[in-house]
Amino acid sequence: MNILLQQSTINNLQSEIKITGSKSESNRLLLLQALYSNIQIENLSNSDDTRVMSQALSSTSNIVDVHHAGTAMRFLTAYFAFQKGREVVLTGSDRMKERPIKILVDALRELGADISYLETEGFPPLKINGTNPTKNKVTLQANVSSQYISALLLIAPKLENGLELTLEGNITSVPYIKMTLRLLEDLGIETSFKDQTIKVKQQSAINNQIATVESDWSSASYFYSIIALSKVGTKITLSSYKAHSLQGDAVLADIYLQFGVKTTFKTNRLVLQKVEKLNNLSIIELDLSNSPDIAQTITVTCFALGLECLLTGLHTLKIKETDRLLALKTEIEKLGGMVTITTNSLHLKASNNLKSQVAIATYNDHRMAMAFAPLALKTSLIINDAEVVSKSYPGFWNDLKTIGFQISQ
Which residues are known to be catalytic? Predict the structure, then answer.
Protein backbone atom coordinates (compact mmCIF):
# COMPACT_ATOMS: atom_id res chain seq x y z
CA MET A 1 0.00 0.00 0.00
CA ASN A 2 1.43 3.36 -1.08
CA ILE A 3 0.01 6.53 0.44
CA LEU A 4 0.04 10.20 -0.53
CA LEU A 5 0.80 12.70 2.21
CA GLN A 6 -0.47 16.06 1.04
CA GLN A 7 1.18 19.16 2.45
CA SER A 8 -0.52 19.54 5.81
CA THR A 9 -0.83 21.71 8.90
CA ILE A 10 -1.40 20.50 12.45
CA ASN A 11 -4.90 21.73 13.28
CA ASN A 12 -5.90 19.80 16.39
CA LEU A 13 -3.78 21.15 19.20
CA GLN A 14 -5.84 19.43 21.92
CA SER A 15 -5.13 15.91 20.70
CA GLU A 16 -3.65 13.33 23.01
CA ILE A 17 -1.93 10.47 21.22
CA LYS A 18 -1.85 7.17 23.11
CA ILE A 19 1.29 5.27 22.15
CA THR A 20 1.45 1.62 23.19
CA GLY A 21 4.23 0.02 25.15
CA SER A 22 7.87 -0.01 24.12
CA LYS A 23 8.65 -3.07 22.03
CA SER A 24 12.13 -3.12 23.56
CA GLU A 25 10.68 -3.49 27.06
CA SER A 26 7.81 -5.71 25.86
CA ASN A 27 10.04 -8.26 24.15
CA ARG A 28 12.37 -8.48 27.13
CA LEU A 29 9.46 -8.99 29.52
CA LEU A 30 7.86 -11.61 27.27
CA LEU A 31 11.04 -13.69 27.37
CA LEU A 32 11.26 -13.28 31.14
CA GLN A 33 7.58 -14.26 31.41
CA ALA A 34 8.38 -17.45 29.47
CA LEU A 35 11.06 -18.21 32.07
CA TYR A 36 8.96 -17.12 35.07
CA SER A 37 5.28 -17.76 34.41
CA ASN A 38 4.06 -15.64 37.35
CA ILE A 39 4.90 -12.33 35.62
CA GLN A 40 1.86 -10.33 34.46
CA ILE A 41 2.53 -7.70 31.76
CA GLU A 42 0.46 -4.53 31.26
CA ASN A 43 0.55 -2.03 28.35
CA LEU A 44 2.26 -4.56 26.07
CA SER A 45 3.33 -3.26 22.67
CA ASN A 46 0.90 -3.96 19.80
CA SER A 47 3.73 -4.04 17.28
CA ASP A 48 4.39 -6.83 14.80
CA ASP A 49 7.73 -7.52 16.51
CA THR A 50 6.07 -8.12 19.87
CA ARG A 51 3.29 -10.22 18.32
CA VAL A 52 5.93 -12.38 16.61
CA MET A 53 7.87 -12.71 19.86
CA SER A 54 4.76 -13.73 21.80
CA GLN A 55 3.68 -16.28 19.19
CA ALA A 56 7.16 -17.79 18.99
CA LEU A 57 7.40 -18.25 22.75
CA SER A 58 4.02 -20.01 22.88
CA SER A 59 4.57 -22.09 19.75
CA THR A 60 4.97 -25.86 19.96
CA SER A 61 6.17 -26.12 16.36
CA ASN A 62 9.73 -27.15 15.60
CA ILE A 63 9.94 -24.35 13.00
CA VAL A 64 9.77 -20.77 14.30
CA ASP A 65 9.69 -17.94 11.74
CA VAL A 66 10.34 -14.43 13.10
CA HIS A 67 9.98 -12.72 9.70
CA HIS A 68 11.69 -9.28 9.98
CA ALA A 69 11.91 -9.20 13.80
CA GLY A 70 15.61 -8.87 14.61
CA THR A 71 15.12 -8.56 18.37
CA ALA A 72 13.08 -11.76 18.39
CA MET A 73 15.78 -13.59 16.39
CA ARG A 74 18.51 -12.67 18.89
CA PHE A 75 16.46 -13.23 22.05
CA LEU A 76 14.91 -16.50 20.88
CA THR A 77 18.28 -17.92 19.82
CA ALA A 78 19.42 -17.59 23.42
CA TYR A 79 16.09 -18.77 24.84
CA PHE A 80 15.84 -21.97 22.80
CA ALA A 81 19.54 -22.79 23.28
CA PHE A 82 18.93 -23.99 26.84
CA GLN A 83 15.40 -25.39 26.59
CA LYS A 84 16.65 -28.92 27.15
CA GLY A 85 15.10 -31.50 24.83
CA ARG A 86 13.51 -28.89 22.52
CA GLU A 87 14.62 -28.90 18.87
CA VAL A 88 13.84 -25.78 16.85
CA VAL A 89 14.66 -24.35 13.44
CA LEU A 90 14.73 -20.57 13.88
CA THR A 91 14.31 -18.70 10.60
CA GLY A 92 13.11 -15.39 9.17
CA SER A 93 12.75 -13.23 6.08
CA ASP A 94 15.32 -12.97 3.30
CA ARG A 95 16.70 -9.83 4.97
CA MET A 96 16.90 -11.65 8.30
CA LYS A 97 19.09 -14.27 6.64
CA GLU A 98 21.53 -11.46 5.81
CA ARG A 99 21.74 -10.15 9.39
CA PRO A 100 24.73 -11.59 11.31
CA ILE A 101 24.29 -13.65 14.45
CA LYS A 102 27.67 -15.41 14.70
CA ILE A 103 28.87 -13.44 17.75
CA LEU A 104 25.86 -14.55 19.78
CA VAL A 105 25.95 -18.14 18.52
CA ASP A 106 29.67 -18.43 19.35
CA ALA A 107 29.00 -17.20 22.90
CA LEU A 108 26.11 -19.62 23.38
CA ARG A 109 28.20 -22.50 22.02
CA GLU A 110 30.93 -21.60 24.52
CA LEU A 111 28.34 -21.93 27.28
CA GLY A 112 27.36 -25.37 25.98
CA ALA A 113 24.70 -24.72 23.32
CA ASP A 114 24.17 -27.00 20.32
CA ILE A 115 23.47 -24.63 17.40
CA SER A 116 24.20 -25.13 13.71
CA TYR A 117 23.75 -23.02 10.59
CA LEU A 118 21.39 -24.39 7.94
CA GLU A 119 22.45 -22.10 5.09
CA THR A 120 25.21 -19.47 5.32
CA GLU A 121 27.78 -19.70 8.11
CA GLY A 122 27.20 -16.96 10.65
CA PHE A 123 23.62 -16.16 9.59
CA PRO A 124 20.09 -17.53 10.14
CA PRO A 125 18.37 -19.91 9.75
CA LEU A 126 19.60 -21.84 12.77
CA LYS A 127 19.02 -25.36 14.00
CA ILE A 128 18.94 -25.33 17.80
CA ASN A 129 19.00 -28.47 19.96
CA GLY A 130 18.19 -27.43 23.52
CA THR A 131 20.81 -28.50 26.06
CA ASN A 132 21.94 -27.79 29.59
CA PRO A 133 24.71 -25.18 29.95
CA THR A 134 28.16 -26.53 30.78
CA LYS A 135 29.80 -23.20 31.70
CA ASN A 136 28.77 -19.90 33.21
CA LYS A 137 31.51 -17.58 31.93
CA VAL A 138 31.80 -16.17 28.43
CA THR A 139 33.42 -13.27 26.57
CA LEU A 140 31.56 -11.28 23.92
CA GLN A 141 32.51 -8.61 21.39
CA ALA A 142 30.49 -5.62 22.61
CA ASN A 143 30.65 -3.11 19.75
CA VAL A 144 28.31 -4.78 17.24
CA SER A 145 24.86 -5.13 18.80
CA SER A 146 23.65 -4.71 22.37
CA GLN A 147 20.90 -7.23 21.59
CA TYR A 148 23.49 -10.02 21.67
CA ILE A 149 24.37 -8.94 25.20
CA SER A 150 20.75 -8.57 26.32
CA ALA A 151 19.88 -11.98 24.87
CA LEU A 152 22.46 -13.60 27.15
CA LEU A 153 21.51 -11.53 30.19
CA LEU A 154 17.81 -12.37 29.89
CA ILE A 155 18.38 -16.12 30.08
CA ALA A 156 21.19 -15.81 32.66
CA PRO A 157 19.13 -16.17 35.87
CA LYS A 158 17.77 -19.50 34.67
CA LEU A 159 21.22 -20.94 33.87
CA GLU A 160 22.40 -23.40 36.52
CA ASN A 161 25.15 -21.11 37.81
CA GLY A 162 24.02 -17.75 36.48
CA LEU A 163 26.34 -15.87 34.13
CA GLU A 164 29.54 -13.86 34.15
CA LEU A 165 29.79 -11.95 30.89
CA THR A 166 33.01 -10.14 29.93
CA LEU A 167 32.63 -7.50 27.21
CA GLU A 168 35.42 -6.75 24.74
CA GLY A 169 35.83 -3.38 22.99
CA ASN A 170 33.64 -0.30 23.15
CA ILE A 171 30.16 -1.16 24.40
CA THR A 172 27.39 -0.06 22.04
CA SER A 173 23.88 1.08 23.04
CA VAL A 174 24.59 0.97 26.78
CA PRO A 175 21.08 2.18 27.76
CA TYR A 176 19.56 -0.98 26.27
CA ILE A 177 21.89 -3.13 28.38
CA LYS A 178 20.98 -1.12 31.47
CA MET A 179 17.29 -1.53 30.57
CA THR A 180 17.72 -5.31 30.56
CA LEU A 181 19.53 -5.29 33.89
CA ARG A 182 16.95 -2.98 35.46
CA LEU A 183 14.10 -5.28 34.39
CA LEU A 184 15.95 -8.22 35.95
CA GLU A 185 16.52 -6.26 39.15
CA ASP A 186 12.85 -5.24 39.29
CA LEU A 187 12.05 -8.96 39.41
CA GLY A 188 14.38 -9.39 42.38
CA ILE A 189 17.29 -10.87 40.41
CA GLU A 190 20.75 -9.81 41.55
CA THR A 191 23.01 -8.24 38.89
CA SER A 192 26.20 -6.19 38.73
CA PHE A 193 27.83 -4.20 35.90
CA LYS A 194 31.37 -3.10 36.70
CA ASP A 195 33.95 -2.01 34.13
CA GLN A 196 33.60 -4.56 31.30
CA THR A 197 32.04 -7.38 33.32
CA ILE A 198 28.38 -8.12 33.94
CA LYS A 199 27.24 -10.72 36.46
CA VAL A 200 23.74 -12.15 36.84
CA LYS A 201 23.01 -14.55 39.68
CA GLN A 202 20.99 -17.72 39.22
CA GLN A 203 17.40 -17.53 40.48
CA SER A 204 15.01 -20.43 39.96
CA ALA A 205 11.84 -18.61 41.06
CA ILE A 206 10.56 -15.08 41.67
CA ASN A 207 7.64 -13.51 43.53
CA ASN A 208 4.42 -12.73 41.65
CA GLN A 209 4.99 -9.60 39.57
CA ILE A 210 2.98 -7.05 37.58
CA ALA A 211 5.21 -5.29 35.04
CA THR A 212 3.86 -2.17 33.33
CA VAL A 213 5.57 -1.32 30.05
CA GLU A 214 6.32 2.34 29.41
CA SER A 215 5.19 3.70 26.04
CA ASP A 216 7.76 3.66 23.25
CA TRP A 217 10.14 6.63 23.07
CA SER A 218 11.27 5.70 19.55
CA SER A 219 7.66 6.13 18.43
CA ALA A 220 7.52 9.49 20.21
CA SER A 221 10.43 10.70 18.08
CA TYR A 222 8.19 11.26 15.05
CA PHE A 223 6.02 13.66 17.04
CA TYR A 224 9.11 15.51 18.23
CA SER A 225 10.00 15.94 14.56
CA ILE A 226 6.46 17.13 13.74
CA ILE A 227 6.56 19.76 16.49
CA ALA A 228 10.04 20.88 15.40
CA LEU A 229 8.69 21.51 11.88
CA SER A 230 5.62 23.41 13.12
CA LYS A 231 5.04 27.02 14.08
CA VAL A 232 5.77 28.36 17.57
CA GLY A 233 2.97 27.45 19.97
CA THR A 234 2.10 24.11 18.39
CA LYS A 235 1.52 21.42 21.02
CA ILE A 236 0.91 17.65 21.16
CA THR A 237 0.38 15.43 24.21
CA LEU A 238 1.62 11.83 24.25
CA SER A 239 0.98 9.09 26.82
CA SER A 240 2.11 7.08 28.81
CA TYR A 241 5.64 8.13 29.72
CA LYS A 242 7.92 8.33 32.74
CA ALA A 243 10.25 11.18 33.63
CA HIS A 244 12.88 8.59 34.61
CA SER A 245 12.76 6.19 31.68
CA LEU A 246 14.65 2.95 31.09
CA GLN A 247 14.72 3.69 27.36
CA GLY A 248 17.79 5.25 25.77
CA ASP A 249 15.68 7.17 23.26
CA ALA A 250 14.35 9.32 26.11
CA VAL A 251 17.34 11.53 25.24
CA LEU A 252 14.95 13.00 22.65
CA ALA A 253 13.74 15.47 25.28
CA ASP A 254 17.23 16.98 25.49
CA ILE A 255 18.11 16.70 21.80
CA TYR A 256 14.96 18.41 20.54
CA LEU A 257 15.50 21.43 22.78
CA GLN A 258 17.98 22.41 20.07
CA PHE A 259 15.06 22.45 17.63
CA GLY A 260 12.96 24.67 19.91
CA VAL A 261 10.82 21.80 21.28
CA LYS A 262 10.14 21.84 25.03
CA THR A 263 9.13 18.64 26.86
CA THR A 264 6.94 18.82 29.95
CA PHE A 265 5.92 15.76 32.03
CA LYS A 266 2.38 15.86 33.40
CA THR A 267 0.93 12.79 35.15
CA ASN A 268 2.63 10.21 32.91
CA ARG A 269 2.09 12.34 29.82
CA LEU A 270 4.55 14.14 27.59
CA VAL A 271 3.53 17.59 26.44
CA LEU A 272 5.60 18.63 23.41
CA GLN A 273 5.50 22.31 22.46
CA LYS A 274 7.34 24.44 19.92
CA VAL A 275 8.56 27.36 22.02
CA GLU A 276 11.05 29.19 19.81
CA LYS A 277 12.34 29.64 16.27
CA LEU A 278 15.77 28.44 15.24
CA ASN A 279 17.41 31.80 14.69
CA ASN A 280 21.10 31.05 15.18
CA LEU A 281 21.22 27.27 14.76
CA SER A 282 23.10 26.10 11.67
CA ILE A 283 24.39 22.60 12.49
CA ILE A 284 23.38 19.67 14.69
CA GLU A 285 26.24 17.45 15.88
CA LEU A 286 25.37 14.33 17.90
CA ASP A 287 26.93 11.05 18.98
CA LEU A 288 24.01 8.58 18.80
CA SER A 289 25.91 5.45 19.81
CA ASN A 290 23.50 5.03 22.74
CA SER A 291 20.34 5.83 20.75
CA PRO A 292 20.86 4.91 17.08
CA ASP A 293 17.16 4.24 16.38
CA ILE A 294 16.40 7.97 16.35
CA ALA A 295 19.04 8.79 13.72
CA GLN A 296 16.57 8.67 10.83
CA THR A 297 14.13 10.98 12.59
CA ILE A 298 16.80 13.55 13.45
CA THR A 299 18.28 13.49 9.95
CA VAL A 300 14.92 14.19 8.33
CA THR A 301 14.16 16.93 10.88
CA CYS A 302 17.44 18.67 10.00
CA PHE A 303 16.84 18.27 6.27
CA ALA A 304 13.36 19.80 6.52
CA LEU A 305 14.71 22.76 8.52
CA GLY A 306 17.64 23.37 6.17
CA LEU A 307 20.20 22.51 8.84
CA GLU A 308 23.56 20.83 8.48
CA CYS A 309 23.72 17.59 10.44
CA LEU A 310 26.63 15.40 11.55
CA LEU A 311 25.67 12.19 13.35
CA THR A 312 28.18 9.64 14.62
CA GLY A 313 28.00 6.35 16.52
CA LEU A 314 25.81 4.79 13.84
CA HIS A 315 27.73 1.57 13.14
CA THR A 316 24.79 -0.65 14.13
CA LEU A 317 22.48 0.86 11.48
CA LYS A 318 24.01 -1.16 8.65
CA ILE A 319 22.67 -4.43 10.11
CA LYS A 320 19.11 -3.28 10.87
CA GLU A 321 15.99 -4.02 8.77
CA THR A 322 17.94 -2.40 5.94
CA ASP A 323 21.26 -0.58 5.69
CA ARG A 324 19.72 2.54 7.21
CA LEU A 325 22.67 4.79 6.40
CA LEU A 326 22.53 3.96 2.70
CA ALA A 327 18.72 4.15 2.69
CA LEU A 328 18.78 7.63 4.28
CA LYS A 329 21.34 8.86 1.78
CA THR A 330 19.35 7.49 -1.17
CA GLU A 331 15.97 8.89 -0.14
CA ILE A 332 17.16 12.32 1.02
CA GLU A 333 19.10 12.80 -2.20
CA LYS A 334 15.91 11.97 -4.16
CA LEU A 335 14.29 14.86 -2.26
CA GLY A 336 17.12 17.23 -3.20
CA GLY A 337 19.53 16.93 -0.28
CA MET A 338 23.20 15.94 -0.14
CA VAL A 339 24.40 13.22 2.25
CA THR A 340 27.78 11.63 2.90
CA ILE A 341 28.01 8.40 4.88
CA THR A 342 30.78 6.26 6.36
CA THR A 343 30.51 2.97 8.23
CA ASN A 344 29.42 4.80 11.40
CA SER A 345 28.48 8.38 10.50
CA LEU A 346 26.16 10.53 8.42
CA HIS A 347 26.80 14.10 7.23
CA LEU A 348 23.88 16.05 5.80
CA LYS A 349 24.72 19.35 4.11
CA ALA A 350 22.50 22.34 4.75
CA SER A 351 20.02 22.83 1.92
CA ASN A 352 16.70 24.53 1.26
CA ASN A 353 16.07 22.39 -1.82
CA LEU A 354 13.03 20.22 -1.06
CA LYS A 355 11.31 18.54 -3.99
CA SER A 356 7.61 17.71 -4.08
CA GLN A 357 5.69 14.49 -4.86
CA VAL A 358 8.78 12.31 -4.34
CA ALA A 359 8.08 8.63 -3.60
CA ILE A 360 9.99 7.44 -0.54
CA ALA A 361 11.10 3.80 -0.58
CA THR A 362 10.85 2.14 2.82
CA TYR A 363 13.01 -1.00 2.35
CA ASN A 364 10.84 -3.14 4.69
CA ASP A 365 11.91 -0.71 7.43
CA HIS A 366 9.21 0.82 9.63
CA ARG A 367 11.46 3.67 10.70
CA MET A 368 12.03 4.83 7.13
CA ALA A 369 8.28 5.30 6.65
CA MET A 370 7.69 7.11 9.93
CA ALA A 371 10.84 9.26 9.90
CA PHE A 372 9.98 10.79 6.52
CA ALA A 373 6.28 11.36 7.29
CA PRO A 374 6.81 14.73 9.08
CA LEU A 375 8.06 16.17 5.79
CA ALA A 376 4.38 16.51 4.85
CA LEU A 377 4.42 19.70 6.92
CA LYS A 378 6.76 21.15 4.27
CA THR A 379 5.81 19.40 1.01
CA SER A 380 3.65 16.65 -0.49
CA LEU A 381 5.25 13.21 -0.71
CA ILE A 382 4.45 9.56 -1.28
CA ILE A 383 5.36 6.78 1.17
CA ASN A 384 5.71 3.40 -0.52
CA ASP A 385 4.67 0.23 1.33
CA ALA A 386 3.29 2.36 4.15
CA GLU A 387 1.88 -0.64 6.01
CA VAL A 388 5.46 -1.46 7.12
CA VAL A 389 4.81 0.75 10.17
CA SER A 390 2.95 -2.17 11.76
CA LYS A 391 6.33 -3.60 12.76
CA SER A 392 6.41 -1.16 15.69
CA TYR A 393 3.47 1.28 15.47
CA PRO A 394 0.36 -0.05 13.67
CA GLY A 395 -1.78 3.02 14.44
CA PHE A 396 0.73 5.57 13.16
CA TRP A 397 -1.14 6.81 10.09
CA ASN A 398 -4.43 7.10 11.96
CA ASP A 399 -2.71 9.11 14.68
CA LEU A 400 -1.29 11.49 12.06
CA LYS A 401 -4.78 11.99 10.64
CA THR A 402 -5.99 12.82 14.15
CA ILE A 403 -3.66 15.83 14.33
CA GLY A 404 -4.44 17.09 10.83
CA PHE A 405 -2.30 15.24 8.30
CA GLN A 406 -4.03 14.74 4.94
CA ILE A 407 -3.42 11.14 3.90
CA SER A 408 -4.88 9.23 0.95
CA GLN A 409 -4.13 6.01 -0.90
Answer: 293
